[in-house]
Amino acid sequence: MLDDLDRNRRGFANVPVEDGRLLRLLTEAIGAKKVVEIGASNGYSAIWICLGLRATGGRLITHEIDAERAALAKANFRRAGVEGLVTVVEGDAHETVKGLEGPIDLLFLDADKPGYLDYLGKLLPLVRPGGLVLAHNMRRPEPDPRFVEAIATNPDLETLFLNMGEAGMGVSLKKR
Ligand SMILES: C[S@@+](CC[C@H](N)C(=O)[O-])C[C@H]1O[C@@H](n2cnc3c(N)ncnc32)[C@H](O)[C@@H]1O
Q1: Which of 16, 116, 132, 171 is deepest in the core (most CB within 10 A)?
Q2: pTM for this entry
Q3: Average pLDDT over residues 127-131
């Protein structure tokens, strides 16, 4: 299923396979029970996250502004057999995330790049100490420098930049 989506990724801006594997591994490694994704597209990265959540018994809430993509993501979750692990929230995530409650174990940002700073401001307070904020496209397309500075200099965060040979992933630990 993931191979099939990978072969037909054109137009969906999915994470590269290495970033998908990283999402699965980190979800499982921290024993995530509640994961929030901003930017579902057709559900590719969410399915990787769900592979980790199968091992932890957790759940994913993913957000998508485009109704067609949200419907496609739901269909792909059914095809992958993970529909019971995911809730898809349709609409502008800058608004819809206001309904979220913590604690969030892992937050994955992969939607409108200029919006990352707003998502961080709204959702970092809900991420538990010891939780992770993952931010996609820290290399390309070019990230918002204000966001990069925020995750690199916030004293509450310890940030690494991984897989920078491709799109690039920011991995920030919310310190205990
Ligand atoms: C890079 S794609 C996500 C790819 C997905 N994470 C994956 O790897 O399979 C970004 C998605 O964010 C969605 N998006 C953009 N702005 C948004 C917003 N304000 N609220 C919710 N979704 C948004 C787009 O419609 C698009 O489907």
Answers
A1: 116
A2: 0.99
A3: 98
